[in-house]
Write a structure and sequence with these properties.
With 136 residues, the chain is mostly helical. Helices cover 80% and strands 0% of the residues. The protein has 2 helices and no strands. The longest helix is centred in the middle third of the chain and has 102 residues. It is rod-shaped and about 150 Å long. The protein starts with a helix and ends in a 21-residue tail after the last helix.
Length: 136
């Protein structure tokens, strides 16, 4: 009977050793997993903060883009009005040139030259002579 008890005790001690080793191993795994969870939670919080900042920047960019689009539309509307006025003025000038060419003799170069006459060039200044020449 003592031998059976010793065998049972040895078996129990062996099983306890294996159980303690397995328990220690599993506790290490739990610690590693807990550390990983903490790191992931920290990373998640950091990424959420970055997302928040990026969303704010995106909202600011969207607002600026809307303002720029509005300014562009206003500028384009002003351009369309100005272009229409300038084209009307240009057609008026073309008609006036046609009338003037017809009136002053057609399409000859001489007629065009007479319409584009320039005033005579100014008389150039000449060197003065007189009382000041004998002083030096």
């Amino acid at each position: 009977e003592a031998e059976a008890e010793a065998e049972e005790k040895a078996y129990c001690d062996e099983q306890m050793t294996k159980t303690e080793a397995k328990k220690s191993e599993l506790e290490d795994d739990v610690a590693k997993m807990t550390a990983k969870i903490d790191q992931s939670a920290s990373k998640s919080a950091q990424l959420k903060e970055e997302v928040k900042v990026l969303q704010e920047e995106l909202a600011a960019l969207t607002k600026e883009q809307a303002e720029m689009d509005k300014i562009r539309q206003e500028t384009h509307a002003d351009y369309v009005v100005a272009k229409k006025d300038l084209e009307l003025g240009l057609s008026g000038v073309r008609k006036a040139l046609t009338v003037l060419r017809d009136y002053y003799g057609g399409d000859s170069e001489e007629a065009e030259a007479s319409m584009l006459q320039q005033p005579a060039p100014p008389v150039k200044h000449s060197k003065a002579t007189g009382a000041g020449t004998g002083i030096i």
